[in-house]
Amino acid sequence: MVQFQLLSLRAAPKLLVLFFFFILVNFHIAEAGVRHYKWEVKYEYKSPDCYKKLVITINGKSPGPTIQAQEGDTVIVEVNNNLLTENLAIHWHGIRQIGTPWFDGTEGVTQCPILPGDTFVYQFVVDRPGTYLYHAHYGMQREAGLYGMIRVAPNDPEPFSYDFDRSIILNDWYHSSAFEQAALLSSIPFQWVGEPQSLLIHGKGKFECSLSPSSAAGVCDKNNPECSPFVQTVVSGKTYRIRVASLTALSALSFEIEGHNMTVVEADGHYVEPFVVKNLYIYSGETYSVLVKTNQDPSRNYWITSNVVGRNRTAPPGIPPGLAIFNYYPNHPKRQPPTSPPTPPAWDNKDSRLAQSLAIKAHQNYTVKPPTTSDRVIVMLNTQNTIDGFRHWSVNNVSFSLPHTPYLVALKENITGVFNQTPPPDGYDFNNYDISSVANNSNATSSNGIYRLQFNITVDVILQNANTMSKNTSETHPWHLHGHDFWVLGYGNGKFDVNNHPKNYNLVNPIMKNTVPMHPFGWTALRFRSDNPGVWAFHCHIESHFYMGMGVVFEEGIDRVGKLPSSIMGCGKTKGLLRHN
Amino acid sequence: MVQFQLLSLRAAPKLLVLFFFFILVNFHIAEAGVRHYKWEVKYEYKSPDCYKKLVITINGKSPGPTIQAQEGDTVIVEVNNNLLTENLAIHWHGIRQIGTPWFDGTEGVTQCPILPGDTFVYQFVVDRPGTYLYHAHYGMQREAGLYGMIRVAPNDPEPFSYDFDRSIILNDWYHSSAFEQAALLSSIPFQWVGEPQSLLIHGKGKFECSLSPSSAAGVCDKNNPECSPFVQTVVSGKTYRIRVASLTALSALSFEIEGHNMTVVEADGHYVEPFVVKNLYIYSGETYSVLVKTNQDPSRNYWITSNVVGRNRTAPPGIPPGLAIFNYYPNHPKRQPPTSPPTPPAWDNKDSRLAQSLAIKAHQNYTVKPPTTSDRVIVMLNTQNTIDGFRHWSVNNVSFSLPHTPYLVALKENITGVFNQTPPPDGYDFNNYDISSVANNSNATSSNGIYRLQFNITVDVILQNANTMSKNTSETHPWHLHGHDFWVLGYGNGKFDVNNHPKNYNLVNPIMKNTVPMHPFGWTALRFRSDNPGVWAFHCHIESHFYMGMGVVFEEGIDRVGKLPSSIMGCGKTKGLLRHN
Predict the structure, then answer these.
(1) Which domains does chain B have, with CATH numbers?
(2) Min CA distance, A199 vs chain B (Å)?
(3) Which of chain A's residues have a Cβ under 8 Å away from the Cβ of B117?
(4) Which of A132, B160, B436, B557 could form a disulfide with A94 if both were Cys (CB 3.0 to 4.6 A apart)?
(5) Chain B neighbors of A578, CB-CB under 8 A
(6) pLDDT tens-digit map of B394-411
(7) Euclidean distance between CA atoms A137 and A446, whole angstroms
C-alpha cells in the first residue's frame, strides 16, 4: 500500500483494479489458508515395538507429522527423498484431489516415483472437513513406516460437541522388511508373509523379546523408551473426540477403551448417525471419530486395546493385543491399570462385524442422497489364483499389475503401448461359480487393463467375496477408492443376487466412505458418481494383497483433466515424452 | 548378393561401393563380434554362506553370469530392473569406456540410475584382453550381491601358456542389508558396520550357524546345498590359469591353494613379469591371473582358502577363512582334504603385503613406458573426520558427496548449480600434518567439487595414508580409477616426500593397473594420462568408505565427449533438461 501512494495518478484506474484484486486474493488466502510442510524422508533404526529395525521416517518420525488444516485450505507438502537408492510416492488417502488428480500420489497410476535426492511438491485442496490419512503408495513401502494423519477442521458447526480433539492411529507391525516380504510373496512355491509380530497404537507396541532370544540381543530391548506405551491423558468429566484410524498392512482390528463406551460420529470424513459401541471394528484405510465421556472412576488408568479380528490371532505364536494407556489425570501416565485388558470379541465372530458395518448410516442432517439408479454395474469376484506358478489375487479372474508408465500421463498425453487395452470384465460367471469352494479357476490372467467409465454417470460396484485357495476360508478385505467417496448401499452374506439384492439397497441414509470392508463369504455394494476427471485406483488396502494383484483402476473424464505438471513424469514412456529432440 | 543381381545395371556403380562397404562392415563384425546379454535384476532369497538373506541376483544368480568376449568385441548388456522400488546402475570395472564414457555405469557421475521396470542398454567395446569385473555402483548395492566377472580373450598370443582357464571371484559377506549398513554409517553417534560374517569363494561360504542359534532356525542351514563349498576340479599334470578377482565390501584378502605355488602373470588386464607366490594378497577391485601346476599328490584334494589380512580377523567373533576345494580328478569333489587348511599370513604383517605390491612389474615384453615427467601432481591425504557429528572419510579434508545430477551430463550440457565449482585441494599441509597422530582436523568439509584436468596431460596422484580417528590405526585402502589404467610408480612407508621420493619412482617397468592398495601409514604413487574424454570416479573400493566420502572425481576433455545418449538422463536437473516446453 505504501508503494501505491508513490505511484502517479495516471496509473490509478488500473492500479485500483489491481488493488481490489489483491485485497480479494488476500482475503481469499486469509479464509482458505495454505499449510506448508517440508518433509525429509529417510531410513532410520527405530524400535516401535522394542525390536530394532529400519523404518522409513518423515522428519525423524513414524508415524509422520499430523497435517492440520482448515476446510478449504491448500496443503503443500515438499517431500525430499533422502532414501539412498529407493524411490517414493505418497498418497493422500481420502482427499479426492478434485482438479489435481496428478497429486493423488499413486505410483504407476497418477505419477512416476520420486527419485532419491529429488524434492517433489504435492499441492492440493482439502475441500471437506474430517479425518484422513497419508501413506506411501509404492511397492510395499507403507508398512515400512511411512504414514500419518490428516485432520481437517470444519468451517461450519458439527452435529456433535466435545471438549478435546485427539487422534490415535492403529497399525500392525512386521520385523521383516518390505523387500523381504515382497520377495516371499513372489516366490515359487508361494510363501505367505504371516501374521504381524505386534500391533502398534499410535506408533508404539510391545514385542515379547524373549520370543527371539539370542540373536535379538541388542536388537530387542523391552526397556527402550521408544516402545513405552502410548498414553492418552484425559481429565475427568469431559467429552473427548478421538479420531481413530487404521493403516494396518494386514489386520482387521477391534479397538476398545476399557470401561468406556464410544459414540461413533464420523466415518471417513462423513458424519454418522450416532451409535454407541463398546468396541470399534476398524479396517485398514478407515477412519472414525468417536466421542468418549471420561465418566469412570478417575482414581485409576484404563487400557486402550487393539486386537486382530477376522484372522486367527490365537494360532501360535499368537498376535498379542496392542496396549496403550487411557490416563486419568493426575494419575501417573505410566501407572498400569489395575485390571487385565478387556477381553476382545472372538476373532471369528463375523456376524458382530457385519452388524457394525450395517449400523453405520449417514447422519440424518447430513445425508447426501445417492442417485436411485445406476448406469453401470460392475460385479467384482475376488479370488485367489495361481498364474505361472505364482500366487495372485484376482478380480473376475484378472490379477492387476501396475505399468511403469503412469496411466494418467499415458491417457492424457496419448502415449500408446503402456497398458493392455482390454478392460477387465464387468462380471463373472454368476450362475456357475461356487463362491464357497476352493478357487481352482485355472484361467486367470495378469493384466494392467483398466475400467474406462463414461464421465458423470452412476456406477455400482459389487464386491463379491469367495473362498480362497484354502478350504473353508474366506478373508476380510477393506477396499479403498481413490478420488471419490461412495455410498455404501448394502452388505450381505453369500452370493450377491443381481436381481433381488438391489431391492434392499439403503437409498435413504447410506453412509459415504472411501474404504469399506468386504466380509468373508459376503458381498458389499457401493455406488459412486464418475464425476472426478482422472485415473483412480480401487484396491484392497491390505499391502500384500494389492501387491498380489487385488485391485483395479478406473478412468473417467480424462479429456477434462488439466495440464499435467511435468513433475509427475520422467519414468517409463514418459521419459521419452519429455524429450522433444 | 541375390538382391544385387536383380538390380538394374544403371545403379551398379553406387551399389558396387555399397557392396564393398557391406563386405568391409561384415568383415569387421566377423572380426570384432558382438556379445549380447539380457539380464533381469531382482531380489531373491539366497543362502550363499548357509544364512538365508535377500540377495540381488542377475538372471537368478549371484555372482552373475561371466561375460566372455574377444578383444575388440562390442558387449551389449540389456539390464532390466525388476527390483520393486529401487534403482540400479552397473559399472564395468576395468573397461576404460573409450568413446563411451556415458556407459561407465557410475550413478551420479556418468548416469542417472535405472528405474524399476526400465531396461537400460549398456554398450561398450572391450578393447584390451584380460580379466575385469562388473558390479553395482549405486548406494551400497554391490554388497547386496550384484557382481560378476568379464573375461576378454586376446587376439594375439600371450607371454605364457596353460591348459585350462578358470575363474574365482572372492568376496566377503554381511548378513545385514545394504540399507541397514547405510543407516548405521549415517548414525550419530557413528556405528561401524563391523567385520563381515563370512568370506565367499565364488559365491559360496560357510557361516557357523550355531553363532546365531534360536532366531536363525530356518534361516541358517549348514546343509543347504547353496552353501556347499565351491569346487575347482583339476586333472593332474596340467597348468591352470586361474583368474582371481576380489569384490569384497571391506576385506583385504590372502588367497592360497594349499601345497601349490602360484605364478602371477596378469594384473588388472596387464601382463606381469612372472613371479611366484605361495599366497596372493588381493584387494577389493583387483584381478590377477595366476598359473598353477597340478603337480601335487593326485590321490587327494587340497584347500583353496581366503583369509582377511590388514584387519584383525582373530578378534571375537573372528572371521573364519573362506574355504573351497581344489579337487584332483577323479577324487570325489566333496571329499575333504586330509589336512587342515594352511595357516594364513599374520593379519598384521604389512611388510609382506608391501613386498608383494612392489614385486608386481610389467612383463618385460609388454611394458608401456610411462611419461618421465608429470604436468600436475595431486597429493591426496586420506583421513577420517567428523563433520556435523557424522563420521566421514576425506581427501585433503574434503569428504566427497555425490550430486543427484550426473556430472557428465551437467558438464556436457552446461547445466549449472549441480555441484560445487570449487575443486578439492591438490595437496595438504605437508609440513605440519602428522600422519601418525589421531586425525583431529576439525575443519573438514563435505563437497561434491571435482578435479578438472587439462586434456592429455600427465597427472601424478600420491595417495597418502594416515592415522584414523583411533589411536595407532591406519587401514588399507584399495583405490580404483575409472576410465584409465595408471602406472604404479612406487610405494613407501610414512609420509611422502615430494622432493625426494619421486627420484626413486619406477619409470622402467611399472605395472599398469586400475586398482591399487594404499598400505597403512604409507603412500602409493600413480601416474596416468588425462586422455580419455569423460568424467571419472577415483575412489576407495571399500563400499562403506566410498559411501562415507572416500573418493574424488576427475573431468577431462569434456568438450570432446560425443553426443550423450538420453538413456543416461532423467534424474535431478537432467529431468528438466529433457523438457523443451
Answers:
(1) 2-26 (no CATH), 159-359 (2.60.40.420), 376-577 (2.60.40.420)
(2) 20
(3) 403-404, 571-572
(4) A132
(5) 575, 578-579
(6) 999 999 999 999 999 999
(7) 20
